[in-house]
Amino acid sequence: MFLGITATVTNWDVEGTTCSLILEDNPLVDFVELPDTCQGLYYCNILSGVVRGALEMVSMKTEVTWLRDMLRGDDAFELQLKLLKQVPEEYPYKDDE
Question: What domain of life (predicted)?
Fold first, then answer.
């Protein structure tokens, strides 16, 4: 939302722990072309870190990987999110003290 990127959530698995985010627009790649020597580079990898960090802030340990990248010749930008575990919240103090 803050980056101006909209996404569609699809491809849920049976357990409900894995899904895909398909990015409809990605302003980070405007005017970017990867040379042939850098085709192994995930140019927008910062987005996977942003998503993983945001989910950690709400107590979800996740693994975020790129499935498709338009800079590498695919037809869309797609991130796969996999929930590893739900971390219980810890409070540094007790309410009755």
Answer: Eukaryota
Tell me the per-residue pLDDT of 53-87, one tens digit each, with 9 for 90 and over.
989 988 899 999 988 877 777 788 889 999 999 87
Q: State which residues form the domain around 46.
A: 7-26+38-85
* Both tokens assigned to 42: 């995930």
Q: Is the pTM value of this prediction over 0.90? A: no
Question: ∠ CA(54), CA(71), CA(48), 5° rounding?
Answer: 10
Per the structure, the count of domains in the chain is 1
Which residues lie below 8 Å from residue 17, measured CB to CB, with a gap of 6+?
Answer: 82, 83
> Is 2 within the bounds of a domain?
no
Q: What is the CATH number of the domain that holds 47?
A: 3.30.1380.20
Cα 35 to chain centroid distance, Å, stands at: 24
